[in-house]
Write a structure and sequence with these properties.
With about 260 residues, the chain is of the alpha/beta class. About 35% of the residues lie in helices and about 25% in strands. It contains nine helices and ten strands. The relative contact order is 0.23.
Length: about 260
Amino acid sequence: MSLVFAAITPHPPLAIPSVGKENLEKISKTKEAFERLETELYAAKPDILIVISPHGEISPDHFTINLSDKFQINFEQFGDFSTRLEFASDTVLITTNKEKMANRSPINIISEATLDHGIGVPLFYLARHLKNIKLIPIYFSLLDNRAHFEFGKNLKETIIDSDQRIAVIASGDLSHCLTENAPLPFDPTGKEFDQKLMDFLKNSDSQSIINFDPELLERAAECGLRSIAILLGILNNINFNFELFSYEAPFGVGYLVGQFKLD
């Protein structure tokens, strides 16, 4: 099988040293988990890295795939004018299978060279030793979780048919209302959502994740579940064990790092 690696990461800009500065110590578990995940990804020797982000160009009723010729990442919007990353693109995997994919899921192809922090933060840590990696950014839609799961199953067929070694990262933060200093007003539902999600992942219970109560999701104000739903669709009918590397929420937002160990 061409899928060699799958993981979930958060994307806090504070994880970038020149942005977080003294606050970096407060998310030390996340930083250490990123570094551990980087070792695992490097060992998988991927040719292509697919990153699913909630912060790129979102189309309400289409899944968006970014096929720019090359990609650039910076963190200027967070006050960092020195950190810059560049990546090559892979356009062959998607364009070769575009017609077949479009028959099963609504997809939108764009070409945007500058990438968002939902992709930039994970890649700052995970791709530092992957000099020849080719990148495919994907942005979820506003369709329901089931549609995202089905899109993942669709994407899985393209991955399986490839002779390239492919890694997939679902980028997303969990609840944004976990403490009084959170970006959104405190709501105990946030803690409930985060804990349930971790339990479902540990139990490989994809269907319970897809069937989360929409009201609970709205109150938890998460931004990662659709990314995870796509990844779970890719993993459909593949045996895996989810290993939680870290979870913390020092700023009222849930940051989860974990890897799907593939059989």
